[in-house]
Structures are given as structure tokens and as C-alpha cells.
Amino acid sequence: MKKLLSVLALVFAFMMFAVACAAPAQNEEPAAQPAAEQASDAPAAGADSGADSAPAPAPEPKTGSLTIGISINGVGNIHNRHMFEGLKEVCEGRGHKVVAVNANGDATQQVTDVENLIQAGCDVIVIQCADSFSMKNVVADAASKGIYVISQDAGWIEGCSAMIQLNYFSIQTDINMMLGAEIGYQGKIITTGHQDNFALRAAGYVHDAMITEWGFEEVAHVQTTYPGTVEVTYKGLDSALTANPDVDAIFTSQDLEAIGAIQALKEHGLYPQVKCVGIDGEVEVLRDIKAGGSVLCTVISDLDGANEAVCDTAEKLMAGESVQKYISVPYDIVTIDNVDEFLVKAEEEAAKYAEAVMQDSRFKLLDLNTVPTTQYDTDLETELTYYHDFHSYANSTETIWPYGNPTDMAGWGRDYPERDQNQNVMHSYFRASDGLMNSFEEDDLRKERYIVHRTTKNYPTTGVSGSMPQTYGKMKVNTSTFKPVSALVTFGRSLRLSEAYLNYAEAKAMMFLNGGDDNARTQALSALNTLRQKRFSAEGYVAKDISDAEELVNFVREERRRELCFEDHRWYDLRRWGMKEIKHIWYESENSYLTYTLNENDLLYTVPIPKNSLDRNGRLQQNELGGKRAGVLTTITNEDL
Q1: Are 171 and 299 a contacting pair, CB within 8 Å?
Q2: 324-336: string of b/e by CB count within 10 Å (b at 16+)?
Q3: Which terminus of the chain, N or C, has less C-beta within 10 A?
Q4: Mean pLDDT taken over the chain
Q5: Which of 182-186, 588-592, 629-633 has the lowest mean pLDDT?
Q6: What's 41's DSSP letter?
Q7: Would you call 592 helix, strand, or coil by DSSP?
């Protein structure tokens, strides 16, 4: 694909790359010995300074099955996940044994991971997304033991045998020159980034060079980190934009920072006029580009080709053949002009994994027509309402992985009833929303089988007495107390096959929306109808046939709401669909209620950073999560009932 490169960008990029990167260019050299012989002055990790530092001889040439170790710093973005999982798939597909470890963003842990890979007897170790400075000694240790090391997207690590790398200097030059042109190469800018790895350092060098060359006024710098990049960027920019509301652009370094910037710009009323840029091709960023939002462009690299090159290099090294010391990974700049192509590719990836689950013979959709609604109680000699356990292998052919205690998952909804003056239960504090209940069609079996209807004396605002839809379901329930039952091998949640059908349908519907592929529309409807046929009575089922792309996407989203209700999906679905306005009602009594509103793109959509992340990274600060909301009081009159 044609790259959006200018002559100036190329010259600038390669000059910077030559200065900052001491690695050899794309030349071929024989690999008759490990890289330790080229860096013999680097002591092995943990070595005695007085010990013999002579390099180990090259291992005997080896072909056929190899043991390849893969160490990655973290998989918190789409680029890293694709690189890590993709390389495992390529290597295993060629018959190699793979030992893969993820340091979850901890540079010290990654050093330990590589030490463990050395002890595991790997023939070749691939280091991905590392802090190249911290890896120097452990790479030297590997080389001293006759183990080849390949750097992938981690910069040049002294002692490695080859580097397969995106040219981040070139990329950052390209996208930041586009951003600079957008504001006429002048004005106030905010920069974001950190120094913890090669890719982000490159961004900082380019930002500094452009500020020096064109005289941008850098009014603030937001120091980011990993993990928690989006939240840290948002919080830093929230403060920076408060002080500098007249900023012209934000020079972000990658997509997770761009996502944080989007949130902050919306909060300050500067969206979409203030622009930023990204790298990695996160779907949320691609959608922002398509919508004409604040992200001007992002970058997607040829990770499939890069992973093939890594495996090729490992095989050549072990066979004693010559390898290229530096292999540049091709990339595409994604703008509003070509974003649809990449959105379709992203949805294809999602559909591929969902389809693999759908085709797994171990699981099949459960026909709700086979699930009764009543069960005879021999002790009471009467029929009682029966609530099926959908989260166990024994009771559901859809269960892929059960987890969670029913009490933990439903206790908040079951244990807080409203009582009258005699302490008789009147109604639950929490109940299923009218919006959800009204979304079910008349013959949809899920309305009765998925949702517990608790006996109650009063049901405010509807005039209905006798039952109330609860905020839990799909689990074993005691029908005398209407409380979920905790027992051996009972669970409150599970990964279910129906989610794979909905993931597949959503991916295909988005492909139809973004690319106009009518075959994708047909595939989305096929998955939806296959699922829905198991959710309706035989006489009530009618196959859906939707021709409008937006209508199809919206229908899939509503189907997710119905099928996955009370399984902890809804909040995250709403976040990724644009953080729409939500209204919740709190019943103070049978005669009044309070309405609480979560506004579109509300600060309260921000998720707290987990405590274990805060404990492991002292530079992280907890997100500002928004203030307490006041509800709007409504009094219920007889006319309302």
C-alpha cells in the first residue's frame, strides 16, 4: 500500500535513526558464533568480575524442531497482543516448542523471565517490547551460554544476534509531521510519553526535534506509564488542559495515550477540533478516525510478516546461516481516507476467534424450549417456579468456563429488600430495568428463564403485584426466599457459547457497516438467527432479515443486552460503544423515587486503577472518579399507577 511519506520525513527519520541506534544497518553477516563474541566486554548477569570472560563457542548447527523462548514486557495493547500470540502461532505451526512468558509491564520481572528461559534450555530467545537498557546483562548471559537472542520491537540490545524492528523514528516523524501540518507548524502543544522503552523514547526524541525545528510552544508534558496508560494520560491531560485550554494539538506517542486524550478533550469541550495521533491500530482509535474525531491518524504494522521474519531468523541462526542484523517492519499510516479497510481487518480478526469457539464440538447452544419453568416439589406436593443453573457443565451445554461464587455475584442484589413497618419484605431495592424487560419480544423465552421473578407485595410505578424481576438470574435459586444458592460446583458466572455467537455477529455487522460487504451481513444474520432460534418457542420464532447496516449493528447490541443480561457485560459494552447516557432509578418508598443520570462520556465512566497495579508501580496515581450525584425526586401519584 502506498505510504504517506515525504522526502523530508525520510531524511529526518533516517538521520535520527543513524545517530540514536548503534546497530548495524541491513547487512548480512555469518552467524558462526553467538552475539556474545561481538560484545565480549559485557559481563554475564551475575558473573564474577574476575572470572574468565571468554565467549562460549557457537552451538552445533541444529535444524528441525527448536525450543524458542518468547518474553514480552506486556500485552496491554492490540499491537503487543498480536505480536506475542502471533509469534507463538507461527513457531508452533512450524513444529517448534515454544516457552512464552508475559511480564505484565514489569521490566524487572522481564529480566527474571529471560533468566528462566535461559535455565529452561531454549535454543533461541526472542525478547519483545523490552527496556533495552535493562536487558543488556541478561542478554550477555544468554549469549555466553550459547543461546541466540533476537530483539523484536525492543530496540538494539547489546549482545543480541538480530533486531526485527519497526522504525519508530520514521513512524513518529511521519505522523507528527502530519499533525504539525494540521496546525500550520506553529502554536501551543502538549506532549505525552515516557522513557521506559525504545518505541516511546523515539517519540520523545522526535517531539524534541520538531519543537526545536519549528518552534512549537510546548505548554505541558504529561508523563505516562504502563500499565494504566489510558487513565494516567487522561488524568494528566485533564490538569494540562485546565491550565491550557487554548492548546492547538496534543503530540501523543501511541494509541492508548490517544484514547486517554479523547476522553480528556471531550471533558473539556475541545473534541474534535484539537487533534492527536497514535500508533498500534486500536479499534477504538480506528473508529474515532472514521468519525472525524480528534485522532488524525494511527499506524498499523505488518506484524504477521514480522513474526515470520523472527521465526526465519531463529531457524537460520541455529542452522549456522547468515542473517540480517536489522530487519525493518513495514507499516501503514491509517487516516480517514483508508480507515474502513483497517476496521474491516480488525473485525475479521474478532470474527475469526469467535468462529473458532462456535465450531468447537465440545459446546453447543442450549435450546430454552427444553428448560422447564416449573418443578414439582415432593415435600410441598405442589408445583414451584424453577430457575435453571446456566453456569454449570452439568446443566448447560453452553458452559465453557464457570467461575465466581453465587453469593459474591448476587448478594448485593438479593440481600437488601425494602421492608414495611412490620419488617415484611415489600420489594427489592434493586430490580431489572423497565428498558431491559420491555426489550424482550412476546415469545422470547429468556424473559422468564433468565430472570428471577421474586414474589413481592408491591411493585412501584407499574401497579403490578405478585412478582418483580430481580437483578440476577441464570443461577440456582431457592424459590421460597428467592436467593441464589451457594453449594459445591455451583457458580455465579461463566463464559458461555452464546457470547461467541454475539461477538461473531457484531464483528460481521461492523464489517458490513464499514466495508459494505453484504456477505458479512448474511453471516451476521445467520449467527443471530441460529442463536435466536434456541431462545424462542417454535411457534413464536421468526428469522430476522435486516438490510440496513446501522439497524443491524443496533439490533446486535440489543441482542447482547438480552442474552447476556446480569453477566457483567453491559457496562463494558456501553463504554466501548461510546459511553452513552444512562439513567438509574432508586425507589425511596412506594410513593417516590430518585433518578440518577450518568451523562454521555461522564467522568464516572472511568474505571479505577486496580490496587495491585498501584502497589507495583509507584508512579501511578488513582483516577479521579467523579463526584457524588444527586438524584432528581419524583413523587408517585395514583394517576401514575
Answers
A1: yes
A2: bbbbbbebbbbee
A3: N
A4: 84
A5: 588-592
A6: T
A7: strand
C-alpha cell of residue 25: 544497518
Instruction: For residue 544, give the amino acid letter.
Output: K
Among 241, 180, 166, 250, which Cα is nearest to 209's?
A: 180
**C-alpha cell of residue 171:** 513512524
**H or E segment to which residue 611 belongs:** helix 611-616
| Residue 509 cell numbers, joined | 455487522
Q: Is the pLDDT of residue 53 over 80?
A: no
Confidence of residue 464 (pLDDT cuts 50, 70, 90): very low
Confirm if 509 and 497 have CB atoms less than 8 A apart. no
The number of residues making up the chain comes to 641
The answer to whether the beta carbons of residues 418 and 425 sit under 8 Å apart is yes
4: pLDDT confidence band, cut at 50, 70 and 90? Answer: very low
Q: Which three cell numbers stand for residue 404?
A: 465466581
CA-to-CA dists, residue 186 to 179, 356, 459, 626, angstroms: 11, 50, 62, 35
Alpha-carbon span 429 to 171, nearest angstrom: 54
Q: Are 314 and 148 in contact (CB under 8 A)?
A: yes
What are the distances in angstroms from CA 481 to CA 33, 76, 80, 470, 472? 73, 43, 49, 13, 14
Cβ pair 283, 346 in contact under 8 A? yes
The C-alpha atoms of residue 415 and residue 50 are separated, in whole angstroms, by 68
Give the global pTM. 0.68
Quote the radius of gyration of the chain (alpha carbons, Å). Answer: 29
Tell me how far CA of residue 308 lies from CA of 85, 86, 152, 266, in angstroms: 13, 9, 12, 41
Q: How confident is the model at residue 542, as a pLDDT?
A: 94
Mean predicted confidence (pLDDT) in 176-193:
95
Rounded Cα distance between 309 and 330, Å, is 12
Task: Kindly report the number of other CB atoms within 10 A of residue 606's CB atom.
Answer: 20
SS3 string of 311-340?
Answer: HHHHHHHHHCCCEECEEECCEEEECCCCHH
**Contact yes or no for 249/275 (Cβ under 8 A):** yes
Q: Which residues contact 541 (CB under 8 A, 6 or more apart)?
A: 443, 532, 533
Which residue, among 2, 7, 17, has the nearest Cα to 170 in the 3D structure?
A: 17
Rounded-to-integer distance, Cα 69 and Cα 181, Å: 43
pLDDT tens per residue across span 610-623: 888 788 777 777 87
